[in-house]
Each structure stands twice: as C-alpha cells, then as structure tokens.
Amino acid sequence: MIAYLDNSATTKVCREAVSKMCDCMENNWGNPSSLHIMGINACNILEEARETLAKALGCQKKEIFFTSGGTEANNLAIKGAVSKNRRKGRKIIASSIEHPSVMNVMDMLERDGFEVVRLICDENARVRLEDLEREIDENTILVSLMAVNNEVGSIQPFDKVKSIINKKGSPALLHVDAVQAFGKIPLKPSAMSIDLMTVSSHKIHGPKGAGALYIKDGVRINPVTLGGEQEKQIRPGTEAMPAIAGFGEAIKQLPNINGQLKKMTTLRNDFLLKLEAVEGVCINSTEDALPYIVNISVPGLRSEPMLNLLSDMGVCVSSGSACAKGHKSYVLEALGLDNGRIDSALRISMSRYTTEEELDLFIKGIQTAQKVLRRR
Amino acid sequence: MKEIILLKEGELALKGLNRVNFEDKLIKNIKFRFRDLGKFTFTRSQSALAIEAESEDVDFEEAVERLKKVFGIVAFSRAAIAEKDIESIKATAKEYLHEQIVAAKTFKVEAKRSDKKFSMTSPEISREVGAHILRNYPHIKVDVHNPDLKITVEIRERAYVRGNQIKGIGGMPVGSAGKAAVLMSGGIDSPVAAYMMAKRGVQLTAIHFAAPPYTSMKAEMKVRDLVKKVSEYAGRIYFAVVPFTEIQEKIKDECPEDLFTLIMRRLMMEIATRIAEKDECHALITGESLGQVASQTLLALGVTDEATPLPVFRPCIGMDKQEIISIARQIDTFETSILPYEDCCTVFTPRHPRTRPTLEQVREAQALVDWEELMEKAIAETRYEPIN
User: Fold this and answer.
1) What top-level class would CATH report for the domain B179-387?
2) Structure confidence at residue B28 (pLDDT)
3) Which of A171, A282, B106, B289 is most buried, judging by how many CB atoms fall within 10 Å of its CB?
4) CB A304 to CB B342 under 8 A?
C-alpha cells in the first residue's frame, strides 16, 4: 500500500480528467484557433473549461486566462501588473513566506529598482493587517499575498486587503496566489475584491501543465510573452488543449467545498490527536490552518533520512525544507522556529482521496523510523 | 564527397617497440566509442592513423565530437579524398574547405607527396592549389608564416585535402596504464580525480558507499550520473555500490566522535582495496585535496593510507577548489555534483573532528569493534553494474 500524503506537491489525476484528456488527444486534437470543424470542436472544449472555471470562481468567462500553471500565472500577474502600472508608483508588498514563483519575481523587481516590502508573519504564519495598513500607501502599485501557505497551510487574511488599499487611497492592485487554496476554501474573487488570482490544475486532481490567472474585468496588465491572439494576447501561444480540458474536468469533479472542508477538518483533528501521542513529534501548523496541510518536526532526526525511510515503507511526504545541506525552509525560518525544528520538518498534505488508513500508516512509519534512526 | 579522419597520436609515437600495443588500445577504445555509429575501418601508416566510415549514412559530425573525448589523441583532422589529379584536388579544396576559407583572412597551402609517381612536385602542387583559392576568394591573402588556415594536400595511395587540425584531448589511451578503483562520493572532486587518472591511461572501477536511509536513492542516482559523465572520457566503468549503513551506524555507536570520519575513511579504504583486488585494480584513487576538510590534513591522509597496501593516487591533492571546479565544469560534472543530497560522508559528521590524529589513537579506537564480518557482508552485498 502506498500512502500518498504529498498532495501539496501534486495530486493524482482524477479518472474523469484522464478520459477527457484522452478524448482530446485521440478525437478532438484540433487547434482552437482554426476555423474548420476540428478547430471549432477544440474551441468548444476550451470554452467549456473556461466556463467551468468561471462558474467555480463565481466570475465571468472573460476574466479567465489560461496559463501553463501556477508559476506562469504568478509571473504574469506580478510582472504584468507592475509593468502596466510602473508610472503610478514604485512600491510592492508581499509576505515573507510566498512561493518561490512570487519571491523570485520580487527579488528581480527589487534589482530593477522597485521598493519591495516583505511582511514578517506572526506565530500563526499570517501577515498582520496592521503591518499592511502601515505599509500600503499612494506609492504602492501591487500587493501580492498567497491565500494558503504551501508549507504550513496558514490561511492569509487576503479577503481583507483590498478594503485597506481603498482606505489608504492607494492605486495598488491585489494579487492572490490561490494555488493551494483553490477547491479547498471558498474563493470568490469579485466578492473578495481580488484583482488578480492564480490557480493551478495539478493541485486539484487535474493534469500538470495547466493553470489560470483570474483578471478582474476592467483591470489591465501587460503580457509577459508576446505572440498570437490567444487568451486576448495576454497569454499567447496555442492553448495546451489536453491539459486545459483535463483541468476543466477536474474542476467539475470538485466536491462541495464547505462539506469537504468539514470532512477534512475531522480527518485532520483525529490525525493530530494520534500524532500528539507519538513521542518526539512537534506540530508546526496551527489549528486554524487549512486542514489539508499538517507540518510537523521530529527534532533530532533530519528530514532526509526520515523521508527515505518513510518512502521505503510506502509513505510519501515531503520535507518542510526545500532540501538538505543548508537549504533551510525560509517559511519555517520566518516563523522563528529553531534549527532543530527546521532541519527535521515534514509536511503531510492530504486530498479528498486521503484515508484514515493512509494517515495511520504514516504514524506507524514515523514510529518505526524513529526506532531505526534513534536505534534505541 | 568521401571524408576520412586522420589522427595524430603525440606521445604514443615515442613509445618505441610498445607503440603497437598503445595503438591497439587506442583503436579498440575508438571502436568502442563509435560502436553505435556504424562501421569504420582503421588504417595505420607510419605517422598517422586513418579512420574511414564504411557507409554513407554514418553520423560523421557525432564521430568527430566523440573523438574530442578520446584520450591518446593530441590532434586530428578531417580530410576529403580527391582523385589523384590536380584538377580534382583543386576542386575538392575549394568545395570541401569553403567555410573555413570564408572564415579565414590568410592561408597557406602545404603539399606532401609520398607517391613520387605523381607528376607534380610538392611546391608545384602548393602553388596550383593556392592560386586556385586566390582566384576564387578575393578576400583572402597568403601568409606562409602564421596563416589562419593551413590547407594540407597529401598525395599517398590516394589524394587527401585537409584544413586546420582539431585539437584532441591528449593523454594516454584508457587501459594502457592498467586499472584502478576510484572512490566516488558524489561531490565535486572525485569525478575530477577519476577523469585525471583516466587521462593518463587508467581504466576505472568506481566504488560508491551508500547509506540508505540516511542517503537517498537520488544520491545514488546522482553518483551513477557522474560515473556516466566520466565514462564519456574514460570508456566503460564498472560501478560498485557498497551498502555502508551498518558500518556507519556501528562507528557512530562504538567509536569516539572526533574520530568518526577517519575510521570511516579507513574502513572505506579497506573495503575498496578488497573490491579493487577482485577487479584486478592496482591502485586506489580519491578526490582528496590537501587541507580541504579535517580528514584531508597531512596527518589524516597518512592515517587513511595506512589502511590499504595499494598506492593511493590523489590527482587533486595540490589543487585549490576553484581549479578543481574549473575541470569539473570542463567535463560537465559540476552541475550534477552540486545537487544537494546527503552523501555518506555528511551523514554522521562529528562536531569537532580530529585534525592531528596519531595512527595509534585511530587504530586503538578502530579496534573497539571487530569489523571483519561487517566488511565481508558489505562486500558480499555490493552491487555491480557496467556503465558506459
């Protein structure tokens, strides 16, 4: 048995998405831009996927722009918004625990002369609204905040940001990286006054290679890549049809969000109870974090050997830190955890397919691994 | 147009009566490197080795690229075969060397006539071919001392036209110096050390110590990738993966912490020696560089060497990290080497390793455990795999 508990890295593609993609490759493989029947069929599938996503986000079809995934959508949102609004101001605000596809763009913009503010998080891995209120000013052109952190699962107060922006009379756009949140918590960008929002297919049981950027009607950004007319020239290039079709199908299969959230909370809480009973385990995620993600540490036992042992037992998790040998997790570091906790961090991330048996296998695995590694 | 490759062997030509053996090795190595490219014929003449493809569909460019990574070749050139008549030679020179002529500002023509039945003398051939080039390419001038392009015309059993030489990588044919076993951790230094010894004609066996679960599958795959990169130069390499976990745990449990690394290195040397001897290797190779880490001080190296009767070669010993890195980049192992996986050397690193150990201390600490059984088990469970 494999206990796949690394769903924040990627998820299993659901059966419905697979068959949709097969149909797309075997029968409806046309180019959506072509004017003949093959093109029209492909275009219909593309627009169906767009409509599905629009419905899921409670937005208009024309506000959806497909990309190759979350990284591209984040790049497009930030670079595109900054390039469009560079004359309105020079300040950009993000949290200090954003995904690398945001962080590294921020670093680049800083080298280009923008003032980048990276907000420190509180002990719950959330930015403080008072910090946001202090930093946002007339010179601020973009605030980029992730909805759910990928390492610890903390939920940011992203829905409260736009009102602060408005209160301060700032021209800033709000970008939300919702890759880990989409399909898991309610996300209605128009109701939450979000201008730009990133979602990804392969975190919700769709295929890799597809994602989308929501761009609020009326908000203008510049394209990053130049080319043909696809996606209203905001993201040119022939649409990755099998992947986008699979993405659409995966969205259709998403269960009711609040109902699923309840189930996951119960599953997570039971898991936490069992974890707490295991000696030597500290829990790094807070209770109000997204129940799909649990970050723990086993101080004294480094993540990498732990991962290897668990993997031998069929348990797939990831280390909280990106890698061994000094590449510390900047997220856990930002939370002020000590090195012992950071070096031994493990992230357990669940999906709607996760079972109690899988979580029990993890508990058993970690007990066995402790015995082996501590050699008592 | 039919093309051949002419090799210049350099050092090999100085090997007197043994030269034939060296040449045999070289030809064997080239044949091995070309094995998937099609059929080639090798012809020896007094000063050069000619390689000719037997069929038209051979990927000649790829063959040339691979030759650049064969040790024992100082330089080589590609030549076109012309009819043995001056008009054909002129036409071939112009057509075959067109790109090189266009790129050059100055040139000269050198003719070598070993077939004295050919009706023109060497200076006459040079003049005729040179004049033909000058007439057709107004931009180019003659410079007999330091030309950008030297066109060589050779009249032997056939007529050959060639342009500038291509630099080979030098060294000695792999295998001509015997076999040795290199200890590969996955770092930057050991692939460089392996490469340098292969360059002097050593055929390699690579020994890697794996300590799962402390080290991952990925760490082992990384070392395999490194061995594969080195094999582009060193030919086939036998890759041995020794399971080292139990020994490392035993060291951690039973030995004084400040001597962990040294005892580990000594046990690695002992195991490597036994594997080497089984594989008829006559030396060990490591990537150690003096003073780089605590186990690489002069005293520590002495203590390590005492664990093996074989000579231990350390071609990086006098090099700075930057020098090692520049070779690693040249042989394209650097990017792989810096992938961040735990390796067996970093698993149980002592906080304060001993830098001035005495042999007595280390022997004493090592004698706390009977290693024989553990070592025999590790050797018995070693996995072998040829890599090329």
Assistant:
1) alpha beta
2) 94
3) B289
4) yes
Q: Do B212 and A312 touch (CB under 8 A)?
A: yes
Rounded-to-integer distance, Cα B184 and Cα B170, Å: 24
What SS3 class is residue A221? coil
Q: Which fold has domain B3-169?
A: VC0802-like (3.30.2130)
Q: pLDDT tens digits for A140-198? A: 999 999 999 999 999 999 999 999 999 999 999 999 999 999 999 999 999 999 999 99
A15-21 long-range CB contacts below 8 Å, 24 or more apart? A16/A249, A16/A250, A16/A252, A16/A253, A17/A205, A17/A206, A17/A207, A17/A246, A17/A247, A17/A249, A17/A250, A17/A253, A18/A246, A20/A245, A20/A246, A20/A248, A20/A249, A21/A207, A21/A242, A21/A243, A21/A245, A21/A246, A21/A249
Closest Cβ opposite residue B214 in set A305, A311, A312: A305
Do residues A112 and A150 share a domain? Answer: yes
pLDDT more than 90, % of chain B: 71
Q: If contacts are CB pairs under 8 Å, which of residues 81-140 in chain A contact chain B?
A: none
pTM of the model: 0.82
Q: Are residues A183 and A319 in the same domain?
A: no
- Same domain? A278 vs A207: no
Q: Which two tokens stand for residue B60?
A: 């000649």
- Among chain B residues, the shortest Cα distance to A302 is held by B214
Residue A312 and residue B346: Cβ atoms within 8 Å? no
Assembly ipTM = 0.70
Nearest-CA distance A11 → chain B (Å): 21
Q: How far is A295 from chain B (nearest CA, A)?
A: 21
* DSSP assignment letter at A112: T
In angstroms, the separation between the Cα of residue B10 and the nearest Cα of chain A is: 45
Q: Is residue A10 part of a domain?
A: no
pLDDT for res A376: 46
Residue A1 lies in a domain: no
Phi, psi of B112 (to 5 degrees): -130, 120
Judged by a CB distance cut-off of 8 A, whether residue A376 touches chain B is no
Contact B342 A326 (CB under 8 A): no
Looking at residue A323, which CATH number applies to its domain?
3.90.1150.10
Q: Please indicate whether, in this complex, the C-beta atoms of A327 and B253 are within 8 angstroms of each other.
A: no
Local structure of B229: helix, strand or coil: helix
Tokens of A4: 């796949």
Q: Copy the structure tokens of residue A91.
A: 């300040």
Is A24 known to be catalytic?
no
State whether A341 and A232 are in the same domain.
Answer: no
d(CA A281, CA A278): 6
Domain of residue A285, residue span: 255-374
Distance CA B120, CA A279 (A): 94
Structurally, how many domains does chain A consist of? Answer: 2
The pairs formed by A48-52 with CB atoms below 8 angstroms and a separation of 24 or more are A48/A245, A48/A248, A49/A244, A49/A245, A49/A247, A49/A248, A49/A249, A49/A251, A50/A248, A52/A248, A52/A249, A52/A251, A52/A252
Question: Per-domain residue ranges for chain B?
Answer: 3-169, 179-387
A310 CA: distance to closest CA in chain B (Å): 9
